[in-house]
Specification:
8 strands, single chain, alpha/beta, 4-stranded mixed sheet
Length: 183
């Protein structure tokens, strides 16, 4: 079973975190990652075309590192432990996303209802958009109720590609190869 923690910014800061940060290449392009130097838990994953700083973790010290091994682990069946850091509301949204079965999709309104906040669709959309662990907490699986793939921080084209990939893997690969943390 993978160790995933959902903690608030305050809990994170109490740990006096120091993180490594770097870029590696995945089958979908470059990926910016950050991980805790003490525990090696991932705390940020994002697709990128350039080196970008991680701004969502206040009072965190970052050191450059070779990230290719970490990126390779993320997109394999050997996913490292990770930690999601956010507000209590964001954490509730991300936990619901993390619980989605491989290849499943959900609308923003259904996601809001799943956390018992059916009137908070815009706030849920904002929490989805601020997900620090793309791919592992599958924000790309949230679709607009009106149809289509909708927006994605790294472009609708990549979102569609990730969704299509998951459908292909769901139909052809054994569960251990489906690039999901063990539960």
């Amino acid at each position: 079973m993978k160790n995933i923690d959902f903690i608030t910014h305050q809990e994170w800061q109490q740990q006096s975190p120091r993180c490594y940060e770097g870029i590696g290449k995945s089958q979908w392009g470059f990926v910016n990652v950050s991980w805790d130097t003490a525990t090696t838990r991932l705390c940020h994953i994002g697709f990128t075309n350039e080196r970008v700083g991680v701004t969502f973790l206040p009072k965190t010290s970052f050191e450059p590192a070779d990230a290719q091994g970490m990126v390779d682990s993320i997109f394999s069946s050997n996913v490292p432990d990770f930690v999601a850091i956010g507000t209590p509301f964001q954490l509730a949204v991300w936990q619901a996303l993390y619980a989605l079965p491989w290849g499943a999709t959900i609308s923003y309104s259904a996601l809001a209802a799943s956390i018992e906040k059916p009137r908070a669709v815009r706030a849920v959309a904002s929490a989805v958009a601020s997900n620090p662990l793309s791919w592992l907490i599958p924000c790309h699986r949230v679709l607009p109720k009106s149809g289509g793939v909708g927006n994605y921080h790294w472009g609708s084209s990549l979102k569609g590609t990730l969704l299509a990939y998951e459908q292909t893997i769901t139909k052809t690969a054994p569960p251990a190869v489906r690039l999901r943390p063990d539960r």
